[in-house]
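Submission sheet (multi-component)
Chains listed below:
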Amino acid sequence: MKLGVVIFPGSNCDQDLINVLQTIENAEVVKLWHKDTDLKNCDFIFLPGGFSYGDYLRSGAIARYSPIMQSVTCFANEGGYVMGICNGFQILCEAGLLPGALLRNVNRKFICENVYLIPANTELAITNKLTKNSILKIPIAHGEGCFYADQNTMKEILDNEQVIFYYCNSKGEINYESNPNGSLNNIAGICNKTKNVFGMMPHPERCADISLFNTDGKAIFDSIKENFSLV
Amino acid sequence: MTHTISQPETTLEQAISLGLLPEEYEKIKTILGRTPNFNELSVYSVMWSEHCSYKNSIVWLKTLPKESPKLLAKAGEENAGLIDIGDGLAVCFKIESHNHPSAIEPYQGAATGVGGINRDIFSMGARPIAQLNSLRFGNIETKRTKWLVKGVVKGIGDYGNAFGIPTVGGEVYFDDCYETNILVNAMSVGIAKIGKTISASADGPGNPVYIFGASTGKDGIHGAAFASKDISEDSINDLPSVQVGDPFWEKLILEASMELLDTGAVVGMQDMGAAGITCSTSEMSAKSGTGMKIQLDKVPLRQQNMKAWEILLSESQERMLVVLKKGREDEAEKIFKKWDLTFACIGEVTNTGRVQYYIGETLEADIPAVSLVLGGEAPVYKRDWEKPSYIDRLNNFDINVITDIENNFEDIAKFMVQLPNIASKKWVFRQYDSMVGTINQSTNNPSDAAVVKIKGSQKSLALTVDCNSRYVWANPEAGCAIAVAEAARNIVCTGGKPVGVTNCLNFGNPYDKGVYYQFKHSIDGMGKACRKFETPVTGGNVSFYNQSSDGTAVFPTPTIGMVGIIEKPEHITTLDFKQEGDVIFMLGKSKNDINSSQYLVKYLNIAESPAPYFDLDEELNLHNLVLNLIYKNLLQSCHDVSEGGLFITLFESALNRNLGFEISTDSNFRKDAFLFGEAQGRVVVSVKPENLQAFEQIVSTAQISSTKLGSVKDKKIVINEISLGNIELYADLYNNAIAQKLED
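Outcome: structure written.
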């Protein structure tokens, strides 16, 4: 299993992700530079969090045009695994690899805090180590994380079981109070129809190391490893 | 190429209009041996401004302790302090003000403050890992304050979040004295490898001088001079003095600088902050005893037809000056290109001792580098001081004229938890990315100081910024010593040992004798306390002229940024009660003292009283005791007593796990003083019942009094057997007070 982490100018969670994949998961990780097109034979590509190209236009709107994203798009269309976290999720939506869009948070402010997530689909490459009752405490940190899709798109997302995580409270209840940013249906993460492209706003890489006193995010990376050992 | 200055000579009137004194103009003429031209006069006016020269403060700053075996760079030697933390690593840290720009344009003012302080850290070769800030606003009820708070918080958030360094701690105060002139102090902390740091020097004549980062525009011209004036209604006319920040550029120059450092091709590097190209070229030259020949027409510009003095003084953000080893330009240029940075070779190091600026073949300015800088020939003044009359008036306060509280604890408690200076600042810090970098160990484990992991080591850093400026106003010497003591106490309560201080000295107009008294005596208090805690002052900045046009100065606000080291993960100690039944103690003396407390000022509306009780020796004894108890693993929680007194400390400890507490007051003391007084040198700890014997044994041998207050309860708050209700009730008030004020 070889993992690739794309680095855009302005990415700032790339090193956090690499650290977790290397030191916690003992995986082989290579960096993929935005100006390159070579995916270096990676089996799984991550788009990390941050503010790619400054995100001055609209989060992810410029990054989708980068050389590396042309290769990532081909890779995904051929069934390759791609996961975007936070800004990476925004880029995947902008690139059309995931449905819907991420709008400004309803309170119009950046929000950084721990939130709770409950998985909607535990058979995915990034959730196979979770159960339907696994409530995860994982932080968010974004200004544009309000998931939106039009009615038809949303119906497709639900019909195809493309929701990965919902925002919930510590008891697992999905409700208005537990929705931090106004996302439609409390959606925190989705995948594509073919279940090989994943996007989520919360940051599992920020809670995978015991020295930070929360390891709820580790199960997601463990799932990826599990997935490859089964393939 | 011409070597004579051909431009018209300047006049005394021009010098005065640029903020120079007549005697300073004379001194410039003596140094140059001729009358300066406008470019040169402009350069002197910014380099000799208070902001760059520290001319009215340096005499006193030099009295602060600077010695420590672990110190790798002393105050004033480099852009920031550098302390050895073991494992081949050093911590690099500094705090700086951005008060005046933030008072005019809060968003950009605060944002560029964050940008500037981070450049100071990474220009030394240290990668920033954590940021803190200290913010002071006026009355939270006024429209202006709400606008300023929102702008400053968004500015800090947008810049820091995109730059990608977590904001891990800070403080926010509200007081009417800051209504016009808010204070925005930003601190950055970085980690460097010992032996791989970069100096701000320009050795080796012939070495090329590069500028890289953003291009140069007209923003921020005369910003340093602006920062050296009182804020007035006309200040809006200084708007072009406020710079515009771009965190994306900053992120790129950070990464490029780190890669540049790894090549070994760098001779010296400095960021461009106040006074831009002028300051960086002259300071680096002066430090190495060299000079520089700079072609201003090579500087990448943002707009056409900029004049020499505009290029020299521009404070456009996100720019760096670097001196490279000759012959290694290609390696550096490859990195600049990789990160798509604007860059240019703008000149070379010379052995003339002069900074010489050309446009084409015309010599636009020619100045001895050393004459411009602090520690060189920049002016140094010791101003007159006089004790302000209000200080004696405060001492007339007599607690005995105030009726003690009976049993109406509940009303007072509800009032206190909602006070802007006490209530939760979550509305503010939720807008900052506090977790990027995966080093913040306080997110899931709150403690008095922020705790961040040092990657590649088992150690952690404890970081804090503190200053109760009301105490400093009431008694500059004791108040400033209290600020140092509180910072040290916060680090100790977290399980750390304080190792160093950076300070941000926010005062009024130094030509006001009362203000200068406050300044001089604050420094005295800081020096005493820093010597006692063995925390050298590694640097910082001075911000004078923090006062409004009606002549009133802000409270003297010497903000203390302190760094401590937590040696082992098991020493990390948190502030929250852990479980019902644990026994609660207060270490340190109770006093019949409500001086300058939030209770006295806000609940009783008595603004004038002395600073609260404080004893430096007792404070150090307390810190040693607390650390001893932590090292022996005897504390479940540890939280210091500060604003709001003992009750607020207990409440904050109970809050995180939704617990309660039952305590009794001590009949030897007034109830108001016992519960809400702010006498210094106290901490509240909770202890497991099975550890009581070991705990009491250690405490009994220390010269610190200890009071058993009661025990941790499930949700209920009970004082003297009177129930005040459940913690949730108070938590709601505490958590929502600030948001309600700001969002209405």
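Remark: Residues 218-230 of chain A form the longest helix (13 residues).
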